[in-house]
Automatic annotation (TrEMBL):
Domain UspA: 1-132, 141-276
InterPro entries: Rossmann-like_a/b/a_fold (IPR014729), Universal_stress_UspA (IPR006015), UspA (IPR006016)
UniProt source species: Trichocoleus desertorum GB2-A4
Name of the molecule in the record: Universal stress protein
Pfam families to which the protein is assigned, alphabetical: Usp
Similarity section: Belongs to the universal stress protein A family.
SUPFAM superfamilies: Adenine nucleotide alpha hydrolases-like
Amino acid sequence: MIERILLADSGNGHSEEMLKALMAIPSMQRASVTVLHVVQPQITAEAMAAKREQGQQLLEAAVQSLHLDSGHVTTILREGNPKDEVCRVADEIDADLVIMGSRGLKRLEAILEDSVSQYVFQASSRPMLFVKDDIYVKQIHRVMVAMDNSDSAKKSLDLATFLLRDVKGGQLLLTHVNPKKERSGVTMHNPEQDPVLAPAVAAAKKWGIAYRCISTSGKPGEEICRLAEEMSVDLLMLGSPDRRPAIGKGLPDLDRLLGGSLSDYVRVYANCPVLLERTVG
């Protein structure tokens, strides 16, 4: 269940459109939204005052654009480093979901260009919804969940059924990619017999959600992105386990930082919004 959403709004990209699409879903009607804009330090007091005023105007414009009930939306204007402030505010409001725009930069390129979304991606353990600048945001009807046996994949499934249970014409696309098979793109004749997908099928049936199963093979990242494009997915969901031990939460997750994780690959290459569920590994 999503009750508290943090929208990190830079004034660019499609993150506001994504939030509007999400809030149009019946199960999301009660969620509260916090819109955050961070003003970076300026050399002079006059420049800082101008940036603060500009930021306040951006927040006001965002709230008007979202058309949300005033009792369900708040704004926060912060000064500092956007990378740190997004993580800090997410913790302060105990956000169930963080929505961010993303340029979709690849691996170390994002680090070298000081990408805010890349930093938050590798530093935060909260569910995150990334919306790349070059994609088209659609109303959410077709949700694809990449399944495996991880707890984070199961959490993705729970969230997907929560979103779709009251969506008229909604469809849940359950996908499992077996990386151990040599041939890429080979689809199981009866994917519902895939033991990884069986619990997901049971969940879809429980909530009366229309579903389709795809069980295939190959490199998971490439196959997931290919299938999402072929099936015109509106929202792609997958698990992103946090492999840092509890004692190392202040350290980066190197798989994410260096672009070596499945979730990082999909975040960069998928042609639709990507929601990453988190669990501590």
